[in-house]
Amino acid sequence: MKEFDQSRFDTLKRWAQDHGAALHPSLEVYEDDVTGYSLRVKPSANEALAPGFCAVACHVAITLSYINALIDGPVSRAPQNKEQRPAFPPQFMSSNPPHVIGRFFLVKEYLKEKDSYWWPYISTLPQPDRVDTWALPAVWPEDDIECLEETNAHVAVREIQANIKKEYKHARKLLKEVDFPGWQEYTQLLYKWAFCIFTSRSFRPSLILSQETQDHVLGLTPHGTKVDDFSILQPLLDIGNHDPTSQYQWNLEVDGTCQLICNNAYQPGQQVFNNYGLKSNSELLLGYGFILPVTDTLHNDYVHVKSRRPPSTLQKNELQDFLISLRPFSDPSSVAGRSRVFSQQDTRLNSLPGLSRIEPGLIRDLASAVATSAGELAALQHWAQGTEESIPTELHELLERIQQTIGAKVQFDYQRFKSIEIESADNQNQELAVRYRNQYEAVLEAAMDELSRALVPNHLEKLVKGEQ
Question: What InterPro entries does UniProt report for this protein, alphabetically (predicted)?
Answer without folding.
Answer: Set10/Efm1_SET, SET_dom_sf, SETD3_SETD6_MTase
